[in-house]
UniProtKB/TrEMBL annotation:
Protein name: Outer membrane protein assembly factor BamA
Signal sequence segment: 1-33
Protein purpose: Part of the outer membrane protein assembly complex, which is involved in assembly and insertion of beta-barrel proteins into the outer membrane.
Gene: bamA
Alphabetic keyword roster: Cell outer membrane, Membrane, Repeat, Signal, Transmembrane, Transmembrane beta strand
Lineage: Bacteria, Pseudomonadati, Pseudomonadota, Alphaproteobacteria, Rhodobacterales
One cellular-component annotation, GO: cell outer membrane
Assembly and interaction partners: Part of the Bam complex.
Amino acid sequence: MHRTPRRAKARVFKLDHVLALVLGSALASPVAAQTYAFNSVAIEGNARIDDATILAYAGIARGETVTAAELNDAAQAIRASGQFDLVEVTPRGSTLAITVRELPVIRAIGIEGNRSIRDEQIRALLGSQERRVYSPAQAEADTAAITQAYANEGQVNAIIRPQIIRRDASTVDLVFEVNESGVSEIERISFVGNRAFNEGRLRRVLETKQAGLLRALVRRDTYSPERLQFDRQLLTDFYNSRGYADFQIQSVDVQLTRERDAYLVTFFVQEGQQFRIGETGVVSEVAGADPAEFAAATRLRSGQVYSPTQIETDIARLETLAIRKGLNFVRVDPRIDRDPQGRLLNVTYALVPGERIFVERIDIEGNTTTLDRVIRQQFRTVEGDPFNPRAIRESAERIRALGYFANADVNARQGSTPDQVVIDVDVVEQPTGSLSFGANFNSDDGVSLIASFSEDNFLGRGQELAFDVSLGEDRQNFRVSFAEPALLGRDLRFTFGASYQTTDNANALFDTETLRIQPGIVFPVSDNGRLGLFYALDITDITGVQGDPPDPPEDRASLLIFEDAAEGRVATQSVGYQYSWDSRRAGLDRNSGIALRFSQEFGVGDANFVKTEASALAQTRVLNDEVTLTAAIEAGNLSYNDGDSRITDRFFLGSRDIRGFEARGIGPRDADTDDALGGNQYAVARLEAQFPLGLPEEYGIRGGVFLDHGAIWDVGDTTGVNVLYDEFSARTVAGVSIFWTTPLGPLRFNFTEPLDVRDRDRTKDFDLTISTSF
């Protein structure tokens, strides 16, 4: 017998097979509410979804009296299922007719017209999925998400249109047509209410930048609400750390220009007064905690500009001291008393009992490559220790500082009992290796071809591995280095380095070959101090010495170089240490910093020498942080108890040490051959100031002036050779600099003028270098 196809057939169900509806009436008001009773239900239009499912969506239970309002609710419930774009519920005498039209299934999703944002980035934003039911509401939400993504890229005028292409009665293709627009840059960032700092200084604090000449490469000038929210915190931290405890951002106004091609961003701020520290002290509410002993551990001093960072650091010191003294569960409560008249904040650290909570366990998730132990090494807390929220926050910062993770969240939640917590560490890994090929330039060595490989998380163990090759016209370098930051699971850094260098000096009548192998360990000795111990093996050779001692001086190398080369290949062993102290490790003063370094290397075996080097660098910002002042002093001494140094052992100064001179451009020279001989001693002092030039801040161009003063001297035994400038004779050079922050790196252009030089010195009035930061 022929059957009607299922999708075209309307079914009639007896009431006792589907549902029982009882006809009744009631008077809730003077007007009676109409009710219905049906002997059967007819469902039409469904092909993919069966009848029982549709009746379940309707939600009419057996034995209910059905009113008109309840029939409307049933229709709404069927629509809410998201399976239909048409639903009609109609009483037809004793039959309830439900007519539906099913939404189609998405066969494929396409993206057309996009260039700035890749397909995979857009697809990650979509809620619509292939082989799922098409939802107009979801397609609208997807359109909004894509539009916002383009707005974050600065294309606020981009138009996204979702299009439906029907393939058959039950499937469609969903296509998002993208009409990209020009980038709406941030044309201006301005501030209202600022008095202590000008707009240029405040704009440098922000991550968001104004549009500039390099906007094709620098994308921070596009408007991003997320970045702007981060900028609010940066600006608040900037003012708070400079004593403005009451600083507030009242509002941030973001407007599009009339042409809709640029944003105008205005920060409305209220600075308040700058506060300094008044009286400081420590009180104790904990038995066994001597306030005087804890007060001696603080670093906050009366008269300092108030900074929350300084107080946080003191709290960390006091809590650490309490743990060392066996006083667990001690909390440090900073009590701040204001003196508005004197603009002072009196700070009292109160030692109070904290909650007795222990760490039950530390759970780590998300690390597919990095070993658990690498993350656990960043914790000073282990399972069973007293719970210290500050220590956990510091551990989270150390995990983020590793650079292994795109995101790292560390949170505490209640454990199996109220007095225990579980520390959850959720990380998202990111690439940690790099492979690069390119070219390098500096004024001393010229152009070099370089190739390098580095991996900061080798095999997920937190180890560092690097290879570098540099091939220049006059110099070839090969270097490999390895570091294990937590040897034996302790704060003990093991390092190994090996380098091989050859020179083919175009401006000298000899060549050199040097191999150095140096393993060592580095460990902290104080909050800011590090001590390193190392062993070194050096193998040096002087080759290609041109001429012969009988030849005239202009055709041969210096007799001292011939004597050095006659010794052949020399292997030297040494042991040494290096101590460094850097105030920036504590981060107490963001405006200034001091770095000290002192090292000594002692020759053992056949060579008996002591090589000493020291440096001191200081930096501070003045005039509302607009001007940066830097001072540096460096010195070195090489002394032999037996024998004398060779040219490969002595110090040489180049443009990185004292500007305005070529490599080996100053110091002792053979008066006859003009060969630079180096020196066993050197001393250099450098003064520098950096300042804005009044150009738009977004160009990244600043100016500077500098004064360098230094000397290199003492060749050692010069018997039979006329050596110039072997005594201490200082050179002085002044100059101006242009600093330009570019996508290729921070470039520095130096224009120099020698003030005190010697006749045989090799000077230069311009050089270009990659700028370095102190």
